[in-house]
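Field reference: sequence -> structure
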Amino acid sequence: MKRSILIHPDPRLKKLCAPVPDVSDDLRKLADDMLETMYHAPGIGLAAPQVGVLDRLIVLDCVKEEGAEPKPLVMFNPEILASSDETSSYEEGCLSIPEQFAEVTRPSEVEVTWMDRDGNARKETFDGLWATCVQHEIDHLNGKLFIDYLGPMKRQMITRKMQKLKRDMARA
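Structure field:
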């Protein structure tokens, strides 16, 4: 089931999310809903707080090539164990901040641990777009948005645009 995506500014997007004690059928259903919502948007990542659920759950799929097999990844309680000193910059966007993009510099490689949809502990090293995406989504679980990496002027400008978008949407 496709869910509504919260638009910044929304206080739920700035909250610290609670760890998931164990993977239940309800949480697996939420993960499936989030994947459907993300693909429909379309996006490459989505965090539970973006659909109004304050649990430590993210979904991502950074396969963007036309006709390529999707590689959906569901992560409960993801945590970054290690980050490279080397950095890379990507033009990031966010489904909660539609049509706004900015260069963000992050570690180019991260080692992440998480629980998969069957409750198994997993660990993997990500690089490239996958590394950027997993860091962006984990930030959401900690109440941080990509615009928090920007200067105050640019951040305020984007926030004002989002406030106007929300007013326009409320009128429609």
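Note: The radius of gyration is 16 Å.
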